Amino acid sequence: MTTEPALPQGRTAQDVLAELRTLRAQDAPTRGGRTFAYVYDAGLDGLDALAAAAYTEYASVNGLDMTVFPSVARLENDLVAAAVALLGAPGAQGTFTSGGTESILLAVKTARDHARTVRGVTAPQLVLPSTAHAAFHKAAAYLGLETVVVPVDAGTFRADAAAMAAALTERTVLVVASAPSYAHGVVDPVAEIAGAAASRGVLCHVDACIGGWFLPYLRRAGHEVPAFDLSVPGVTSLSVDLHKYGYADKGASVVLYRDAGLRRHQYFAHAGWPGYPVVNPTVQGTKPAGLLAQAWAVQQRIGEDGYTALARSVAEAADRLLAGLSGIDGVRVLGEPRASLVSFTLLDADGAPDLSLLLHLADEMRERGWYLQPQLSFEGLPPNLHLTLTPATHGRVDALLADLAAALKAARALEPVAVDPGLAHLAAGLDPDTLGPEEVEAVMAFAGLTGDGGLPRRMAPVLVLLDALPGRLKERLLTEFVGSVFQV
Taking a C-beta distance cutoff of 8 angstroms, is the pair 208, 188 a contact? Predict the structure, then answer.
């Protein structure tokens, strides 16, 4: 029996790189200020080249063992010290991680193990607002915590501090606040939430993955920013992503703790095997030191004044964008965004969110070369389009607003997309856990998810149906779709 070889016999470097460039050309651009999610573009000449060169210097270094590669400890200590100086309190400690999700997972693990050791909690609960990042639910699923989700204020989209306090029990090991929340860009009432947690002996984590390296510099640029970091009494841990408004390449994040004793619960150590003694501060064993080096290099290059200027640039872009959106009929900006994240919905003649028009608008903007991220409705919170602003946006606001007006006119001329009532009724009665392969394939076909990894050019029909599906069924279909993309 013969099989096809897994790899070719070898190709030239020029050929390999040419194919990578061809593949990359199919993606959304990560530079230029036209992709309003997933990417953070400082717009500084030479920064990408510096990050790539720094990564190359450390590409073969393994951050697993600092006794063999002591420079990784120096680089990590520099990064964490900078984060502590910006966001910390005396004695605060931290760890460099692969991204916000790992930082959050480690903070949840730390809280779980701390509560088990100090308070004897064996059935841990995690209390979080409904706008908290999905990474907290992922951490709870991985680590065996029960999530207690508290609705946010429907007008401000901020966490309800009183309701959060009322949700605390003897089993609560961690309570969460966001600065800001990803979905709407608003800052939760951190001081009130943390104070209530402290009065019950409960730890409080602030998800500042987005705002941690932005809000302090925004304050330095002269803007009013509420206190949210480890200087706030009761805040015991905080996550901040350096690959967001620190402008490092992905993935780079830091998780901070109030003291070393708390951070110790994050670590994993094992000497009960015949190999080398293992001590892992993070989920990773092998750690790519290149990511550490490029984050360090970018911070050193930009510096305090540079980050302040970049924050000011983002704020100016946001001010101009918000002013422009306010002049467009039917647009409603959600909450009071803190300068870098803006979400807006479209209202129909009766003042209700117009999902079909909103999603048609997203499609029309994509046709014009802009990516605005659709966010579906959730428990009374309206569907919206999300924009992550960066310094590269600064010179693009007028063009964005002009295209937005043209795209909205085109979207209003299209037939509204609606979900067949019979299909919606049928879907509501399906049990996601018992669906067989044929049933899954049929529902995916109705949803426009073909099962072969392909997507239609226009997403409005797909997203309107997904918006109408029950949450667990939606999760099952999306899981199946992603599985169809990665088929091998």
Answer: no
